[in-house]
């Protein structure tokens, strides 16, 4: 397999954009529409660098296969689609997207997430500059329309990191967000089976790349809009609590500080908002033992006692005020907290 540094315009494809999907035809339609529009906006030479791969996890809605066929017809020779004969579960479907890529890089995008205008060319230009192990692309969450961007964006451009520790301080829990990660292909098969029941199978390649890689980059401008409040049905605390701690400690056992940074970021940046939404009754996740699960996973970390325990114990109105305080606290102290 060629590396990115050996590729040039008019050479072999560089990047596979892979979408795992199941019974979400409306979201998938928008996701594919934006990808196709981005490819159309590239130069003729750049278009040959991109492939599209969709893995339909035996959708039963009768519509998803039609949406896939429509876009496959528009992108003949570029678009590959597979349909699993049975539903293999989300982890195996995501892993199939990664493992099927024959290009040097893979970008798995959730079927409900949206690639923002003008950014595919930016991603390709960074990949063509030289070997990158993980490229993190900045993103924001939306509820109704991806065009409703947050009011301000403080960071712009691209940042390079020569150490996993520095890169992880910037990304921490976002290393679990597949749509925000463009990664080298062909990594981590020895962890794949173990992680296919964890809801975090992406860490089977992300963490080895973090452990073994030397070149990391972020694009600070918004590249992806992520659909919020659109997933659920599993225990978020178990997945991003005990599962995450176990997996990071195991794969990064020789880099304990980096493992802790991911865990710290999960406590500081991820769980406070979830706890508040769960207590308001607006979460779709099944976490009836939320308090016990968070304490089991993070109880020996001082951040738990500042960022999580008060939100669990305080009466809801006070917890709401405390959540606002935490947002200001994070904004003021940033990376120092992880």
UniProtKB/TrEMBL annotation:
<protein>
    <submittedName>
        <fullName>Glycosyl transferase family 2</fullName>
    </submittedName>
</protein>
<dbReference type="InterPro" id="IPR001173">
    <property type="entry name" value="Glyco_trans_2-like"/>
</dbReference>
<dbReference type="GO" id="GO:0016740">
    <property type="term" value="F:transferase activity"/>
</dbReference>
<feature type="domain" description="Glycosyltransferase 2-like">
    <location>
        <begin position="16"/>
        <end position="172"/>
    </location>
</feature>
<keyword id="KW-0808">Transferase</keyword>
<dbReference type="InterPro" id="IPR029044">
    <property type="entry name" value="Nucleotide-diphossugar_trans"/>
</dbReference>
<dbReference type="Pfam" id="PF00535">
    <property type="entry name" value="Glycos_transf_2"/>
</dbReference>
